[in-house]
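SECTION: protein entry
WANTED: fold as C-alpha cells:
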Amino acid sequence: MSVIIRESGLYTSIQDLGRQKYQHIGIVKNGSIDQLNHRLANMLVGNDEEEALIEMTIKLPSIQFTEPTLIAFTGANFPAYKDHKKITPYKIHLMNKGEVLSFGETSKGTRGYLAIAGGIVAEEWLGSKSTSIRLEMGGFKGRTLQEGDEIELCRNYTAIQKKLFENLEVTETTAWGIDQYTLALNYYTDIFHVISGEGMTHFNAEEIKHLENQVYKVSNRFNRTGLTLEGKSVINRKIVDQSFLSVKKGTVLLNQENQPVVMLNDHQSLSSYPQIGTIASYHIDKLAQKKQGSKMIFKKLTIQEAELNMKKHAQFVKQIKTGIRYKLNEELNK
C-alpha cells in the first residue's frame, strides 16, 4: 500500500538530512532545507529524526492515503485539510484509507514537512534518501514528485506507533502538539547573525558597517541552491584577488552586482566570489522559510558571541524535544 500524489505542488521532493561526507569531492549535501522542522515532524510520529519525509515548497501537494497512516506536518503555516476538514499542524493525525490531505496558501514562510509514521520507501544513494535533482539520484527516481506518483510506506512500526494507532482510532488526532507561538520565535525575525570567514579580510570596517545598516529583500531568484538579495550594493568596487574558497550552507557571497547571495543546501563546493562570512548555525533554519520580498538584516558577531547564542538555541530545541518525548510516553502508557 502507498500514498498517491494527486496534485504535485510546486516543488515537492523526498528528503532526509542529506549526504554528510561527500562535499569535499563536489557532491552537494541535499537534504531538507529546514532541518529543525524536519526533525520535529519525524519526532511527533515516533520516527527517528533522520528519517526521510516529504519536503513541500510554496504551493503544496495534495496526497491520498490508501491505508490508515499516522502523519505530522510542520514548517510554514499552510492551512491543511483532511478531506476538506481543517486540521492543525505540529500535531499527530490519523489518516484513514482513501482520505486526501491538501493545503491552502500562506502569507508567511515557504516550506512544509510531512512525516509519515514508519517512514517511506525511497532510493538511497551514498547513504541518503535525499533527492538530488541535479544528478537525478535518490528519493523518487531522482526527481520531484509528480501527479500520479505512488510512494510505498515502510510500515516499520514501533511500540509507540502501534499504540498511537489504537489511541487515535476515535479522535483521529492528539489533544497535544508543539506550541507554534513558541516555535515562531525561532523563525519570524529578520536579523541574521554572520560569523566572519577567511574572505572577510577583503572588506574594511566601513563596508561591514554599511552592510549591517541595510535592509535587504529576497529577490525572485531563490531556490534550493540559495537566496539572491536585493538592496544597496555592499561595496562600490571590484575585488579582483579573491581566491577560491569553500562554500557551505549559510555562506554569504557577493555576486557580480555586489549584492548578497546566501547559499542553501544544493550549493557548489567552491566559489571565487567574495565571501562576507557565514550565517550562524542557529539562524540557518529560518533561511528556509524566507520567500520573495522577505526582509533580511545582517549583524556581524564574533565566534564567542555566536557560541553563546548557539548554546541558548540548543537548550530551546532540547526543551521542545523533551516535551515531545514526554507526551509520547504518556500516549504509550494510556
About this structure: The chain has a mean pLDDT of 91. DSSP finds six helices and 20 strands in the chain. The first helix runs from residue 35 to 44. Residues 217 and 295 are 4 Å apart (CA to CA).
